[in-house]
Amino acid sequence: MNQNEPPVSRGFKSKRPTSVKTRLPPGQYLTTDFPVLSAGPTPDIRAAEWKLGLQLGGSILGSWTWEEFEALPQTTIKTDIHCVTKWTKLDTTWQGVTFDDLLKAVGLQEPPEGFVMAHCDGGYTTNVPVADLIAGQGMIATRCEGLPIAPSHGGPARLLVAHLYFWKSAKWLRRLRFMAKDEPGFWESRGYHNYGNPWREQRYDGD
Ligand SMILES: Nc1nc2c(c(=O)[nH]1)N[C@H]1C(S)=C(S)[C@@H](COP(=O)(O)O)O[C@H]1N2
Ligand SMILES: [Mo]
After folding, report:
1. Pocket of ligand 1 (CB under 6 A)
2. What are the CB-based long-range contacts (under 8 Å, 24+) for 181-186?
3. Which domains does the chain have, with CATH numbers?
4. Would you say the pTM of this structure is higher than 0.70?
5. Which of 96, 101, 163, 185 has CB atoms 3.0–4.6 Å from 141's, for a disulfide?
6. What is the pLDDT along the chain (207 residues), one digit of tens a residue?
């Protein structure tokens, strides 16, 4: 079983939906609001000027304008999100392009091994293992609850890696850069955990 999945008791198959309690990682509380958490101001990004790049070393594997990005296969997912400041929001719905489909779009059957650094407007960065982005786990989202993502929440496009703490879900995404060797991003170099698994309560370096 995936170590990031909430624990389920073995031997029983319940017909009841998973209870809220088992969906709440340790130390988290439920919220129905959608708090905004940003390390800086919200950039004003016009879709017409937005571009996303996929980079490996010195070469650009792919680059998409808004129009080109919108033409890629679209996926909708419903998932819980967990912020390190302890709020958890259940059943959020996101639409966008999975990392898998982005790799397919540049003709990659297998992703390069290692890590990805997400680079954003305003300079925010965050590092994620490639293994945590593939197999449907990572998405570049452009819609939330059926609407364009609000600028404060990272619109026009943000990374979504919902099984890790939400700081890994980089807002105002501009570039995804493959790295053979791991490097810390913005919060990871400021005392936060390098990986950030909410089920293991990996909030800070050393947790
Ligand atoms: N570019 C950028 N992305 C970011 C951040 C940021 O400051 N800049 N904050 C992170 C943090 S700490 C969290 S908890 C979530 C918050 O997303 P929200 O504002 O949509 O709730 O975005 C993450 N992505
Ligand atoms: Mo956060």
Report:
1. 35-39, 83, 120, 122, 124, 153-154, 166-167, 169-172
2. 181/114, 181/115, 182/114, 182/115, 182/127, 182/129, 183/115, 183/117, 183/127, 184/127, 185/117, 185/118, 185/124, 185/125, 185/126, 185/127, 186/39, 186/123, 186/124, 186/125, 186/126
3. 49-200 (3.90.420.10)
4. yes
5. 96
6. 344 555 555 555 555 566 788 999 999 999 999 999 999 999 999 999 999 999 999 999 999 999 999 999 999 999 999 999 999 999 999 999 999 999 999 999 899 999 999 999 999 999 999 999 999 999 999 999 999 999 999 999 999 999 999 999 999 999 999 999 999 999 999 999 999 999 999 999 999
**Cα(9) to centroid of ligand 1, in Å?**
33
Residue 87 tokens read as 């709020």
90 C-alpha vs ligand 2 centroid, how far in Å? Answer: 16
Q: Which of 37, 121, 144, 190 best tests ligand 1's pocket when mutated (most atoms within 8 Å of CB)?
A: 37
CA of 40 to the centre of ligand 1 (A): 10
